[in-house]
Structures are given as structure tokens and as C-alpha cells.
TrEMBL record:
This is Beta-lactamase family protein. Signal peptide: none annotated. Gene3D superfamilies: DD-peptidase/beta-lactamase superfamily. Residues 34-304 form the Beta-lactamase-related domain. InterPro entries: Beta-lactam-related, Beta-lactam/transpept-like, Diverse_Enzym_Activities. The lineage of its organism: Bacteria, Bacillati, Actinomycetota, Actinomycetes, Propionibacteriales. It comes from the Bacteria. It holds the Pfam family Beta-lactamase.
Length: 472
């Protein structure tokens, strides 16, 4: 069931503060895709910057960890998994596991206190064993076992992917279902049945720590569930003791209190100056503000995640602390939110077809050797040549136009593109609309070259089809 709407004034929030927040978030470097704010369980502000849309899924990166933690809490409450059981007891014969690994519990994994002093697996999606038709043992588990913790479990904290991956595989082993199946049944269907996707390993296993694609309303509903102590619409999702404990930072994870990444980490949630949050790379947030009975969901394309939180504290918190209400500002805010957009590139010039080689400074894999651009009735058509098949992209002139790139396994990557000729060169933005990522295109007939770079390279690497995910 979707969260019901209200107005800022009705929930004791000054809409002028939210307008100032929008002003600040639309300054360069923040790259927002969506924003939702709820107070007292009611949605008081929501908006999507075109071409991003309300019903479209969005890659959450490490925000996936908070969904995995929620599933884990539920299974702990059901007695299916124990937080204090050795995590490898669900995955291997403990006698075959190195001695220090045997002491690593499920609790250590979900709190990132496995014992590694640094991330033991900087996952990029291209460092896995080759794709295999074998449905047997998880090859990644054997690789993980080779990197034994260098510190004592529970006494060392390091942000990592290994811990949550082990939790995800323990969930699958204990229940016979992948994490995504639990996310669907336990969370997404009760939240309203929104679409979702998940990236998986070559062997088809859910990552748990990343790869979850969900809608912004689903992110907001997850935050609201935690704000309400693990309860959604009167139904308990996670037990009360887990809901109370999960946001609390472990002692070994706390390094200070100045910044929002220094205040420590709980069970896949970060402590912060106000409340706590789940977050993911490039600015994906589920912010829980118990002291204000409010939650915030954000998707974006930024590397300055700290600045986004700073702006929430600067503008949102004061808007909820005061008693001023302004119905006129409510209307102004609603109108502003309905018209949000990333301005598409546009121009009237058309040119005949051309084919250009990619420059050495381009960031796509070398197999993408050249680009062909052709005029069309509504803009342009660009084809990225590749031995496995070209990626054909419709590029709108003054508007965003969508294309679907076919990825291995029948998956698709959705691309929203706009572009135009300017000063003798063709520039375009290819927004991978279900991710935080954008490819910037610059074609220069004068130098006879094409340059394609990422605004921010995906964590799965520079090949755009590796961002594809499985619907579930």
C-alpha cells in the first residue's frame, strides 16, 4: 500500500524550507534524480527530475545492504537464522573452514566487523570467476575463504562487501530462496508491488550488498518501516529488538562525531548527526529522522554525498523545527516539484551521416571502436559499434528519447538521450535511466574523432551492459 499524501503545512513543515532545499540541491554537483519527504507517515513532497520517473527502478548500490538487513532481521525473528551462529555454518562444513573464519558470526557480517582491516573484495563485477553452467558450489565463497580476517572478529571494523555477501548466501542456504525473493514478498509487495531488479553473480546469485534496483517510493517505504520500529502498515516486519539494535553503531566503527561517515555503522545502517540512514554510492539515500518523525528518499548522480546530507541538515531540519506554515508556499512547492527536469540538449541543425573512431581518452571498453551518427525525424540515431552487436540509441533534439540496449541473458539497459550540434560538434547525454550513470558524447568531425566518457564510471566497470539487472 502506497503512503498517503499530505501537504507540508498539514504536517507542521514550512514549505519555504523545502523550496530552499530544492534551490540548493539544484546547484552543480548534486545531480538529483528524485526526492521524497514524508512526515508523520504522510508524503509531503515528491519529485523526479525528467527523464527519471516515479515508477522507474533505480540502482541503489549499497542501499541494497539495508534491504538485506531488513530481510535478515525478519528471519532472525522467525528463528530461521541466528545472529550469533557462525556464518559459515550455513554455507560449509565448519571443519573445512579456516580457524579464524569459524569465529565470524552472522552479526559480525551484517555489522562489518568480520575482522578484515580493509575491504577484502573491491567488487567491480569483472573480477569474478568466468561464467559457468555449473549449478554447484558458489565459486566466490572459495575465493572469500582464501582471504582470512587479519584481525579478531568483532574487534575490527572495515567497510566491506564480503560480510553482506555472506549474509545473502546464508539467507539463501537457510531458506532455499534468494534475498530478492524475500525482498519481493516481505517488503515490495506490501509496499505496493512496485517493480524491482537485482544484479547477480555469473552463477546467478544475488549480491546482497549491491545491485538492487527499486523505485523511490519503495526506498521511502523502507525508511518509514524503520522509523516505525520495524512495522509497516500495522504489520511487524522485523522484531522490535532487532529494529532497536540495528541502527546503533558498533563501538569499533565509530571514529568521531564531526562528519556523517564518522559516527559509526550498525547493521547496514549509518549513524549521522540527525537519525540514521542507509545509503549507496553516487548519492542513494534512505534517511530516517526519529526526532522529527520524518523520512527522506533520494536518488542521484553525485560523488559529493556529504554535501547532500549537509543540505538536508541546513534546510530540511529547520523547516520541521518551526511552527510556521504557509499554504501559498505549499502550492508553490507542489508546482515546482511537478516541473523538475534535467534540461535536454537541443538544436535545429541536422547533418548527413558520419562515422568516427573513438579516441584513446574515451572510457568505454576498446571493443567499442567507432560511432555512427545519422539524422532522424525527431533528432538523431547513434550506433556504438561492437563485435557482439552495436548499441543503437535514439537521441532526442530538445527532449529525452528512450532506447533499450539488449544485454546478455535477454536483459535490457534503458537509455534516455538528448543531443544537438553545437559549434560544429555534436554533444549528447546518454542517461542510463535505471542507474545513477551518464555517458557524455562529443563528436568532432574537424578532428575526425569521437570521445565518450562516463560522468562517473559505474562500480561494475566501464562496459555499459554490465549495469543490466534481472527483474524479480
Amino acid at each position: 500500500m502506497a503512503m498517503s499524501p499530505s501537504s507540508p503545512s498539514a504536517e507542521g513543515v514550512d514549505a519555504r524550507g523545502l523550496l530552499r532545499l530544492l534551490d540548493a540541491l539544484e546547484t552543480p554537483g548534486h545531480g538529483l534524480h528524485s526526492l521524497m519527504v514524508a512526515r508523520h507517515g504522510k508524503v509531503i513532497a515528491e519529485g523526479w527530475w525528467s527523464p527519471y520517473e516515479r515508477g522507474r527502478v533505480h540502482l541503489g548500490y549499497s542501499l541494497s545492504k539495508s534491504f538485506t538487513s531488513t530481510v535478515l532481521g525478519h528471519l532472525v525473528g522467525e528463528g530461521v537464522i541466528s545472529l550469533d551462529a557462525p556464518v559459515w555454518s550455513y554455507l560449509r562444513d565448519l571443519g573445512s573452514v579456516p580457524e579464524r573464519w569459524r569465529r565470524v558470526t552472522v552479526r559480525h557480517c551484517i555489522s562489518m566487523t568480520v575482522g578484515h582491516s580493509e575491504d577484502a573484495w573491491v567488487w567491480r563485477g569483472d573480477d569474478e570467476p568466468p561464467r559457468s553452467d555449473d549449478d554447484g558450489d558458489d565459486e566466490l565463497l572459495s575465493l572469500i575463504l582464501e582471504r582470512e580476517p587479519d584481525g579478531e572478529p568483532g574487534e575490527v571494523w572495515a567497510y566491506n562487501q564480503v560480510g553482506t555477501y555472506l549474509v545473502a548466501q546464508a539467507i539463501a542456504a537457510a531458506t532455499g530462496e534468494p534475498v530478492s525473493a524475500h525482498v519481493r514478498r516481505l517488503l515490495l509487495d506490501p509496499f505496493g508491488g512496485a517493480p524491482a531488479k537485482a544484479q547477480r553473480t555469473h552463477q546467478g546469485r544475488d549480491l546482497g550488498f549491491s545491485g538492487l534496483h527499486v523505485t523511490t517510493p519503495s526506498i521511502l517505504a523502507l525508511a518509514q518501516t524503520w522509523l516505525d520500529g520495524g512495522v509497516w502498515e500495522g504489520r511487524r516486519i522485523v522484531p522490535a529488538d532487532y529494529a532497536a539494535e540495528a541502527p546503533l553503531p558498533t563501538t569499533v566503527s565509530k571514529v568521531g562525531d564531526a562528519g556523517d561517515w564518522e559516527r559509526g555503522y550498525g547493521y547496514s545502517f549509518w549513524n549521522q548527526r540527525h537519525g540514521y540512514r542507509g545509503d549507496g554510492a553516487f548519492g542513494q539515500f534512505a534517511v530516517v529522522l526519529p526526532e522529527h518523525d520524518a523520512v527522506v528518499a533520494i536518488t542521484s548522480e553525485t560523488v559529493d554525498m556529504a554535501s547532500v546530507l549537509d543540505l538536508l541538515w541546513e534546510h530540511l531540519i529547520p523547516a520541521m523545527d518551526g511552527t510556521t506554515s504557509d499554504p501559498g508556499a505549499d502550492a508553490e512547492l507542489a508546482d515546482r516539484l511537478a516541473k523538475l527536469q534535467h534540461v535536454p540538449l537541443g538544436g535545429s541543425e541536422r547533418r548527413s551521416s558520419l562515422t568516427l573512431p573513438l579516441t584513446a581518452s574515451s572510457q568505454l571498453p576498446p571493443a567499442f571502436a567507432e560511432v555512427t551518427l545519422e539524422p532522424s525525424d525527431d533528432g538523431h540515431v547513434m550506433t556504438l559499434a561492437h563485435p557482439d552487436g552495436g548499441l543503437v540509441t535514439r537521441i532526442g533534439d530538445g527532449r529525452w528519447v528512450e532506447s533499450n540496449w539488449l544485454a546478455p541473458g535477454g536483459l535490457e539497459v534503458v537509455v534516455a538521450a538528448s543531443g544537438a550540434w553545437r559549434d560544429g560538434c555534436f554533444d549528447a547525454e546518454l542517461r542510463l535511466a535505471e542507474t545513477p550513470h551518464t555517458i557524455l558524447v562529443h563528436l568532432d568531425p574537424g578532428t575526425g574523432s569521437a570521445r565518450l566518457v562516463w560522468r562517473h564510471i559505474p562500480l561494475t566497470g566501464p562496459h555499459p551492459l554490465k549495469t543490466a539487472a534481472h527483474p524479480f
